[in-house]
Design goal:
The two termini are about 30 Å apart. The protein is an alpha+beta fold and about 110 residues long. It has two helices and three strands; from the N terminus they run E-E-E-H-H. It has a three-stranded antiparallel β-sheet with strand order 1-2-3, with no helix packed on it. The chain has two domains: about 10-45; about 50-105, no CATH class. Helices cover about 40% and strands about 20% of the residues. The protein is extended, with a radius of gyration of 17 Å.
């Protein structure tokens, strides 16, 4: 990483990341408990936003495919493959969240 900044924010306060061309806003929506914060991230569509653990899975899968070749039989550009992987991971994560909500342990 090129740099870092540590900030304290309260609910309804935000930070803005701006590079002269694009703007990303991170809003603190709610502090749910000592260890949980609800965020809203607003960014241009050209940015893909993932939780870090999902991003790491995508990178790991992409690296694996670079070594072993794509798992799909039809060639597609890297962006389409990454989108499909992310959609699959999102669907699995959404399914987990729905199951946890039904059990009363939603994350």
């Amino acid at each position: 990483m090129d740099g870092s900044l540590i900030l304290e924010r309260t609910p309804n306060e935000s930070i803005t990341i701006y590079d002269g061309d694009s703007k990303i806003v991170v809003l603190i929506c709610q502090i749910r408990s000592q260890n949980r914060v609800k965020l809203r991230i607003t960014a241009p569509k050209k940015f893909t936003i993932h939780r870090t653990e999902i991003y790491n899975k995508i990178v790991k899968q992409s690296n694996r495919e670079a070594v072993t070749g794509p798992a799909e039989s039809t060639p597609a550009d890297g962006r389409e493959q990454a989108d499909r992987r992310a959609d699959g991971i999102r669907e699995r994560e959404t399914g987990k969240n729905e199951n946890e909500k039904q059990k009363g342990t939603a994350i």
